[in-house]
Structure formats: structure tokens, C-alpha cells
Amino acid sequence: MHVSTDHRTHSDFPTEFRGAVLRPGDDQYDAARAVYQGRAADEGPALIAQCADEEDVATVLRYATAHTIPVAVRSGGHGSDGYAMPGGALVIDLSAMRDVIVDPETRVVRAQPGVRLGEMDAAAQQHGLAVPAGTVSNTGVAGLTLGGGIGFLMRRYGATVDNLLACDVITVDGRKVRADETENSELFWALRGGGGNFGVVTSLEYRAHPVGPDVVAGQLIFPFDQAADVLGKLSAHLATAPRELGLLVAIADAPPLPMLPDEVHGKPALILVVVHTGEPATADEVVESLAALGQPLANLVTKTTWVQANSMLDAVAPYGMRMNLRGGYLPTLSGDAVDVLLEHVATVPAGPGDIYSINISFMGGAISEDMDEDAVAFSRAGAGWLWEAICKWDEPESDAQYDEWATTLTEAMRPHTLTNGYANLTDDLGEEWRRGVHGSEAKHQRLRSIKAAWDPQNLLRFNKNIAPETTD
Ligand SMILES: Cc1cc2nc3c(=O)[nH]c(=O)nc-3n(C[C@H](O)[C@H](O)[C@H](O)COP(=O)(O)OP(=O)(O)OC[C@H]3O[C@@H](n4cnc5c(N)ncnc54)[C@H](O)[C@@H]3O)c2cc1C
């Protein structure tokens, strides 16, 4: 994956930089360049600057600006495009900046960009709190937040950006600024959904909410031949579901669990991933009514903790495999859209050890109903559901067939998919898609104008790029 044209050796890299500086051939270089997207390993960056602190971030950015060198930014390393570690690039690596502080009085959580979701959950749960974020525990807080942030608490408390209170940002010319509702408020608007386009974020402050520690969570596994019927009933069923119910539907191969019949192991199944964060006593009825939508092969929903519930998908998210990711918003879960998704299960190119999952997340509730579409850059207007298709494989020879499958599915879903979307849960689909993903031409132009104010040379271009507004 080569997206950089800069192949300098950076022999003039600033000596005042305090963290580790890693170049090809250095001992720690290969470990440092490993990110979630395995394809990023095909070609390594020119230099990884492992920042010890904000001053290090400022040092790299001043150097980049002085020489007009584009820079990539790595926090949790989960970005599906591998933009955190592009071939030949200069990389600001924030993964060592990992402090998380929870104030139980104000319920404010402050995290550095190297913090992973599981670490933030663990720290906040010591005080019975949680920040609404994502569903896989080693995802980074920074990249997730800057794109939007959705997960099992979004129906109850909104997206991660709806709970973001402030950021510290190092600008491309090396200044530290704060962005919140009153200070640099335009920048703060853009940071809530516009991705890593505007500066390097070194601290994120969130509003946390009381959650758990006990929750009811797990999986309801239905045979694949019931999928169309169960999905057909789901929308009407969820119209009255409590917001405490988080629901992700996965169409994926059934795991080899002893409670499942041997003949369904490794065969497609419909899996309802349920997390109920309301009163445990009320959860039984909610779960039983979901199970009654069909005849499940297994009901694995049980009382557990929030931390365990919010990491149960880790098992199907191994680090470092080659992958692609496509997705978008659906206004409704129509029968036609469901048919397209289910039909494509039969054509997934399945090699031994490969993984696929077509996920559909229910977005009714706070995230779509309580928030003002124009209050932040992240868009969710009209979104009732989010579909995403993830494929993972190891062999480079399989790249073409997986990409072709993903493209075919995306085209078939296009008539059902909204123009706006969640930029973090799909690979970059090109300029036209980027123009629409934030919801309106006005929002897109506002982002371009903010980009021009904060990164006029587009040094932060290894991302779902927003081109700076030009005056000509
Ligand atoms: C297995 C898996 C599960 C996921 N689950 C969810 C989920 O449940 N909910 C959800 O909302 N998303 C989810 N995502 C998507 C996730 O939000 C994005 O991949 C996100 O970019 C990850 O952030 P990161 O810091 O780990 O990634 P990185 O790859 O480190 O960063 C991604 C990009 O964000 C920008 N960036 C990162 N940090 C900074 C910073 N400090 N300052 C400026 N720019 C920065 C850069 O452009 C960078 O290329 C998932 C992704 C994967 C692979």
C-alpha cells in the first residue's frame, strides 16, 4: 500500500526529538509499523517518530512544515485504509501517549491518543462510568472519535463525538491549541467527524455516563435459513425497544461452539449481538422477545460485566490480517437491502482461515433522534441502520478477489445506501463519496474552509482527505 511520494531518509530529522526514531533496519521498526490492516505491511514508512509527549508532536510538525513533508498519524492503528502507516511516509506515532484520567465528580474522562477503548472502559468502570465508543477493545480512541464513534451505547447516549467536550491539538506549524465549544469552536466542530485532517490531537475530553458494571449481553445465533424472516421482523420489533438495548446483527460463519450442532459449524448464520445496559431485571423480557423472532440454535445472552460485553467481539477481530471494509447507512432495513446482503454471503471468496462478517447496526435512538445534524461534522441524518462488510485474509494473492467481491456488494447496495455515511466504517471510496459523506454540500464546504485555515498545505493528507478550500 504505497500512498506517499516522499522517500527521503530524513537525515536532518530534529535532534531535540525525545522519543524513539525508527527507520527501516532498526530493531523496533517492524514491530512499530504493524497496524491492524495487514496490507500496510507490504511497504514500510521512511521514518516512525514515536512521540513521548506533545512537545515531540510539535517538533515533528514544525519539521514537516519547514520542508513541506506530508505526515501520517498513528494512534490505535485500526484505520482500515492503513493510512496510519503509509509506504515511504513520515509517521507521527502516538501509541506511547497512553494516559487516561477519570474525574468521578464531574464524570469527565481525559484520554491521550494512544489509549485503546478497552483501557478507557477499564478506567471509567472503576467509577461505574463509560464513554460511548466502539465495540472492539484495542481500537484507538483518537481515530474512532475523530471519525464519529458508534457502538453499543449510541442508542442511549449518542455517538462518541456527541460526548466529546474538548481536544488539545498541535497545529501543523507546531502550536498547541485547545478546541471546545467556545475556544476555536470551528475547529472543534470539524474535529467531531472530519477525521485527522486539521491537526494532531494530543488529548480528548469526554462526558462519561453511569453504565454497569453488570449488564446483560451475548449472542443469539439463528440458522441462516431464518435470516431473511428474522431481519424482516426486526425493524417493527425494535420500534418500541428500550434505548438501553444495543444491537449489532452479524451475518457470519457460526463458531465451532459445543452447544451448536456440528453441521452448522463454519457455515453462515445470523447472529444478534445483544448488549442491554439497563436494569438487568428488565433485560430478560427484551432478550426473550428478540429470541422469539425465530428459533435460535443457541441463546448465549447472559449476565456479565460492561467491560466483558464491550470486548466480546475481540475474538473475531484479529490484528494484522489483510482486510477490506465497505459500508454505509440505510434509511430502513428493507427486504430488498436484506436480500442483497444475504445473496452476497454465497459468493464471499472463503479461503482457509479467512474471516468475513456482514454487520448491520441499529441506529434508532439518541444518535439519530436527539442530535442536531449540523452541530458536528459527523453525519447521521436519515440513518436508521448501518451496514458494513468486513473481509480478512492472509494471502496477498487473494487481494483482488476480495476487493472485487466488496466492490460488487457496494454497487449492489448503492440504491439502498444513503449518500451520507460514517467515514470510519468503510474504506475510502473516492472523491465523490468524500464529498457526500458528511451529509451536505454546505458541511463539505465548511470542512474545506476549516482545512484551509488549519492545514493549508494539506500536510495531513494520509486520511479520508478533505482538500483545503482554494481561493482561485
Ligand atoms: C476491528 C475494528 C473494529 C472497529 N469497530 C468500530 C466500532 O465499533 N465503532 C466505531 O465507531 N468504529 C469502529 N472501527 C473503526 C475505527 O473507528 C477506525 O478504524 C478508527 O480510525 C480507529 O482509530 P485508531 O486510532 O485505532 O486508528 P489509526 O489507524 O491510528 O488512525 C486512523 C486515522 O485517524 C487519524 N488520526 C488518528 N489519531 C489521530 C490524532 N491523534 N490526531 C489526528 N488524526 C488522527 C489519522 O488520519 C489516521 O490515519 C473499527 C475498526 C476495526 C478495524
Would you summarize the structure shown here?
The protein is an alpha+beta fold. The protein is built from 14 helices and 19 strands. It has helices spanning 29-33, 54-67, 117-125, 141-147, 154-157, 185-191, 227-238, 280-291, 306-309, 335-345, 366-369, 399-413, 431-436, 441-454; strands at residues 20-22, 47-50, 71-74, 90-93, 100-103, 108-111, 129-130, 164-170, 176-180, 200-207, 209-210, 214-223, 245-253, 268-276, 298-299, 302-305, 322-330, 355-362, 385-393.
Descriptive account of the structure:
The chain has helices at residues 29-33, 54-67, 117-125, 141-147, 154-157, 185-191, 227-238, 280-291, 306-309, 335-345, 366-369, 399-413, 431-436, 441-454; strands spanning 20-22, 47-50, 71-74, 90-93, 100-103, 108-111, 129-130, 164-170, 176-180, 200-207, 209-210, 214-223, 245-253, 268-276, 298-299, 302-305, 322-330, 355-362, 385-393. The protein is of the alpha+beta class. The protein has three domains: 20-93, Uridine Diphospho-n-acetylenolpyruvylglucosamine Reductase, domain 2; 100-210, Uridine Diphospho-n-acetylenolpyruvylglucosamine Reductase, domain 3 (2-Layer Sandwich); 214-425, Vanillyl-alcohol Oxidase, Chain A, domain 3 (3-Layer(aba) Sandwich). A hairpin with a 4-residue loop joins strand 5 (100-103) and strand 6 (108-111). Helix 7 (227-238) runs antiparallel to helix 10. The protein is globular and about 65 Å long. Mean pLDDT is 96; it is low at 1-6. The structure holds flavin-adenine dinucleotide. Residues 35-36, 73-80, 83-84, 94, 113, 134-136, 139-140, 142-144, 146-147, 149-151, 195-196, 200-201, 317, 424-425, 462-463 line the site of flavin-adenine dinucleotide (FAD). Flavin-adenine dinucleotide (FAD) is lined by residues 35-36, 73-80, 83-84, 94, 113, 134-136, 139-140, 142-144, 146-147, 149-151, 195-196, 200-201, 317, 424-425, 462-463.
